[in-house]
Structure formats: C-alpha cells, structure tokens
Design a protein that fits this description.
Order of helices and strands: EEEEEEEEEEEEE
Helix content: under 10%
Oligomer: single chain
CATH architecture: Sandwich
Strand content: 35-45%
CATH class: Mainly Beta
CATH superfamily: Jelly Rolls
Radius of gyration: 18 Å
Structural class: mainly beta
C-alpha cells in the first residue's frame, strides 16, 4: 500500500516482551514495590534496605504533589540522588544527562511512573529532570533523597521549563 498522505509510522518503543527500548541516563535504576492485597484492602511496601536496591541509606523522606497540567522542573542536584515513588496518579519524568563523564551525556529520555505500576526510581546527581502530571488529578509522589534537605543551603539548581540548554520542549503544561 502506497503512503500518499503525510502520515509517519510509529517507531517501536518496546520489544516483544514489553521491555522499553529507550536508553535512560546512566545510573537510573528501578525497584518493583510489593503490593499485598486481601479482602480488607492493601499494603504497599515502599522502601526496605534489605532489598539492597540502593547503596545509600534511608535518611529523609518527603511527599510532593503536582497539579494537573503542570510541570515541575527543570531541576538538578549536584550532591544527592532523588528516589521517587508515585503513590497516586501518573507522572512523566523527563531527564537530560549533562554529566561530563557519563556514557549517556547529551541524551534526553523519559519514564512514566504510575500508581498502577508501583516501583521506586532513582535519579542520579547531575541529571536534569522535570516532572509532568499526565492525569486529571493531583499526582502524589514520595521522595527518599539520599541526603536530608539543608534549608540554609539547598542542593537544588533550576532552569526554566522552556530553556534552550536542554533539547526538549514540553508540548503542554505550565510550571517552573
């Protein structure tokens, strides 16, 4: 069949077993989160050092929300890693690796985190990241960063979401 319109065929995003084909910034890892369900309800395990998923200990935990139609980012940490878990909603995490010695330097990638696929995700220090709510309700995210928040000297650096420094443009969304 000849293609006389201007349509473009989709590129494959997963292989036959469902594994994503996209390359993520070097050092990004995931840990599935066990969910236990019975007639009374459910219990979701969020973090257990016995999993040996991450070398850094659990030292600080906080929760943030992201309203529908908004993007939080671009943000970067020079010292610590973020470790996200989405409790409610669906959120896209877009990352740009600017680390000088990284094998994924200069690459942009994205991951969708969702309450429907409970897993922890770490974002290494030195990786710019922005979070976009994909749904119609607030996203609720728990973060287990690798250091405590220093109110006097935050390890947080920001760029506007429409910066030319990162080769990615959000098609929709408001934020900072």
């Amino acid at each position: 069949m000849q293609n006389n319109d201007q349509s473009v065929r989709d590129k494959a995003s997963v292989n036959a077993d469902g594994t994503p084909l996209a390359r993520l910034p070097h050092g990004v890892t995931f840990r599935e989160s066990p969910l236990h369900i019975d007639e009374r309800g459910s219990v979701r395990e969020l973090f257990d050092p016995r999993w040996q998923w991450h070398d850094e200990p659990l030292v600080f935990v906080y929760c943030f929300t992201l309203r529908p139609g908004y993007v939080k980012g671009w943000g970067l940490h020079k010292i610590h890693e973020d470790r996200y878990f989405v409790l409610r909603g669906e959120m896209e995490v877009v990352m740009y690796d600017e680390r000088p010695d990284s094998p994924t330097r200069g690459e942009v990638s994205s991951v969708v985190l969702s309450e429907f696929n409970g897993r922890l995700m770490n974002i290494p220090a030195g990786v710019w990241h922005a979070n976009r709510n994909l749904g119609l309700a607030d996203v609720v995210v728990i973060n287990f960063p690798t250091i405590q928040y220093d109110h006097a000297n935050p390890d947080k650096y920001r760029l506007p979401i429409d910066t030319d420094r990162i080769p990615y443009k959000f098609s929709s969304g408001r934020g900072f």
